[in-house]
Amino acid sequence: MGYASLEPHLPSSHAPLLPPGTFLSISDTQASDGNFLLHHFISNYLKADQNVVLVGLAGILVHYTMVGRKLGVNLATARTKGNFQFVDGLTQLTDYAAPNKEYLAKPAEPKPSSTTTTTTATPSPTTTTTTTTTTVGARIARPAAAAAATPPAPPKVLSYGPKLVDLYRALEEIIQDTASKTTRPFQKQLVLILDDLSVLLNCGWPCRDVLALVRYLKLLVAKFNGTLITLVHADGLLAEEVSQDGLVKGVFYEADYIIDVRGLDSGGSRDVHGQLSLLHGPGYLLRQRAGQVKENEWPALTLHYKILDNNVEVFAKGYSSGVL
Amino acid sequence: MSSFKKRVPSAQATLPAGCRLSAYNGQVLISTGVPSLDDILGGGLPLGTILLIQEDRQTSYGQLLLKYFLRQGIVAGDKCLVVSGDESPEAIVRSLMGIAGEESLESQVQSGVDNRDDEDEARRERRKKAAAAGGTEDEDSEQDRLTIAWRYSGLKKFESGVGARPPAISSRVNKAGSTTEPALTPSQIPFCEQFDLTTRISAKALESADTTLVDSGELQKAVQTGDSDLEDDSDDDFSTSGSASAVGKNQPDLYRNVLDKIRETLIQGGFSTTLLKDPSAPPPAPGAAGLAERHICRIGINSIASPSWRSKTPHDLYKFLHALRGLLRFSFGAAVITIPAHLYGTIDQRHATDGSTTSPYIHRLEQLCDASVRIESFAGAQTNVSSAASAYHGLFHVHKVPVLNALIPSSTKLSVLLDGAAKGSGGPGQSGSGGSSKGVNNLGFKVRRKRFAIETFHLPPEGGVGQRRTSAEPSSGSSSPLSERKKSSSTKSSNPGPATGSFKKADSSEEGSVQSRARSLGGSSFNKPSGQVDVHSVPGASGMARKMMGLPPKGIQGAVASGCSTGGSEAGHKHNHGGAGSGANSSLLDF
Description:
The complex is a heterodimer.
Chain A: E1 23-28, H1 35-47, E2 51-56, H2 61-70, H3 75-81, E3 84-88, H4 117-121, H5 144-148, E4 156-157, H6 164-181, E5 190-194, H7 197-202, H8 207-223, E6 226-233, H9 242-254, E7 257-262, E8 274-280, H10 282-289, E9 301-307, E10 312-316
Helix pairs in contact in A: 6-8, 8-9
Chain B: H1 9-13, E1 19-21, E2 28-30, H2 35-40, E3 45-46, E4 50-54, H3 61-75, E5 79-84, H4 89-94, E6 97-99, H5 102-107, H6 117-132, H7 139-143, H8 169-177, E7 195-200, H9 203-208, E8 210-215, H10 216-224, H11 230-233, H12 243-250, H13 254-268, E9 297-302, H14 315-329, E10 333-339, H15 347-351, H16 360-368, E11 371-377, E12 394-400, H17 410-414, E13 443-447, E14 452-456, H18 464-477, H19 480-492, H20 503-524, H21 544-548
Parallel strand pairs in B: 4-10, 4-11, 5-8, 5-9, 9-10
Antiparallel strand pairs in B: 1-2, 2-3, 6-7, 11-12, 12-13, 13-14
Region (Disordered) (chain B): 104-143, 161-185, 217-246, 422-442, 456-591
Family (chain B): Belongs to the ELP4 family.
Main location (chain B): cytoplasm
């Protein structure tokens, strides 16, 4: 289970998961990182044996694995089981990083121009390194001995495309792939987590395109009985920038649930690291009007939190351990 | 709570030279060369991360930190990649500082003398105090003993900085005595060497240093003239000529070229764990190259995004940082980047002295880096902050500390300087919040003659130690009016014995007399208009005065009463101003 004290404050209808077909947008500031909430949902979904697709635009797999271990989730075994897909959006996302591809160890070229058949014929004994390769269609002749101790396949990589549509296509493929692996496709829920939307904006894609991507992903995920979770930086300092402000507002507009993480207005404290504002997005209000949500399914409120080594305490305002 | 863990030497042996494991999350750390900065970052800079240093105006302390980082790399035998545009990278490397104790050993025999600035300073201070008290040298030891507020003498001394481990002079002597040439084994290389700003790096060290210099100005020229020289740089032995590199050549820009250089260095040196020199060759087995033989690639970029770095869009730098992070996360490397952030603020922001000086542009850069600090030097400040805190050269703001493989930054657990950090990142508050200190100590930095140090920022005792002493001096000297008052006060006490009575009683009467004396003296000698800050108003005050306020000194060595009111007009003040009692060299500590 993720953070036990946060659980009662999340939408209750499908607890501990989010209702399928919804979109949770998390916003944070630099002083109070909202990344810890992602870990909550990752561990919750994996514990419930659901599918998780995590797109690491800012974090790497090791980070999530290490934190997952602290929260009692083994991401490595989840990956071998196929429950958990990590998509590397860090190493090859931009055109600057695109040449990285050329230096990756590739026993088999995924490119159609497979002039290197001679190299694949020679059995290389060291294909079990945990390097990041795009093994979408890679047929690797593994030695039998190595196959016994096969680590989970290296994460898929989002490689550079001039348009965000390319990213969407890649994600679509991954999600379909993940969903098709499960025996009963529509019994399982799926969550797609983008760990930092602001990266896309920073890497030069226009705000409009990023918002379109979010909208597309939301619809795509809903098809697979899934939930979309994104994280976006919403520092007050950046509100002056049109594109940044537009992104935050646009993402909020798409959202069903909003969790806004920020520091305390009154400054820092040893016992309170910041506050979580649980807000209703327009999507929630629409569904409420349509009678799809129960009354008081998710009361909007503001809570305080404190991050510990392997847990996060969430409590009502003024109820921190320093006060009581 | 004691978060200090003794490192096990067995774990140390498997690490590359000059590295250590974080006591909190097992991250491999390298030193920035400055112990106090290492402390702030949680023990050191984790491998695979980027530290952004926002430079100061009009001074070059930011570059000094970068030099420390590079110099430490040379000590550890690391690869150093220096990128600079405004100043030639050669000049930066040549002007690196020397190792403390090395020069003196070679020139004159000064074995065993630890001439650190701290001790110098402390000694000088002590001597000054002793002179002021009219005592002789042997009172030095007496000095530290408290007789009146003796209960406080048990408290630990007030430390504002992080003590570096004492330099292993003896081992260095041995080394100098022998050939001096043989490289130390990895375990012998210190995590953080002690450097001496008064000396320059020795030619021998420069020769042996493994550096790659990239002059971004030259690159810029090459880019602008569309020189095909670049194609030589990108490694052509793959003949891939893929779409990506073709695109790169169609639209040359500086950041891309710098990144290509960095990538090339990382790959050629074998620092990357995922990218290989020759992808077609079978990659080496993971355990083949022992960690101990590995070295670290230190990337230092000086004044990135200064006007000499031209770019078409601001996104170039964002993309650069994102790609660099992606590269470094899978490499044995770390980067320190300095940026003239003050060029990017709006006018009012630039001159603000609270934490909100970060412009949106810089703020977004911080999102893409793992750690971010800002240096604000008093020399470049518009306000005269410096008059209040002459002991420091500027303020040191910590905006972001690395959070890797854990929920909370390791510096929250380990850092001494950031003690009390709620979140390790103090960060500029939201536009509304005034205080920049999120439960974090305010930090200032000093550049002593020999070293750079970051310390918790606190105001000096009002008027300084010397003045306090001299003002208290006449009270003990000319005792004719005082003795009368002393008698009058002692008559009030229940036992009006002779002056040579039992000690306790003498003490009590003494105390009363000190109080009254101080009160009376306050009108004359304490009322000097010397522009001191009224410390009493600080805790409640907001804005700058609050910023200037560090921790109140818990126990200052020697006898210093921190001044509490500037004027003696506040006669009803309860605190005892420091007065030298007869024979007692220490005055009361004041909280």
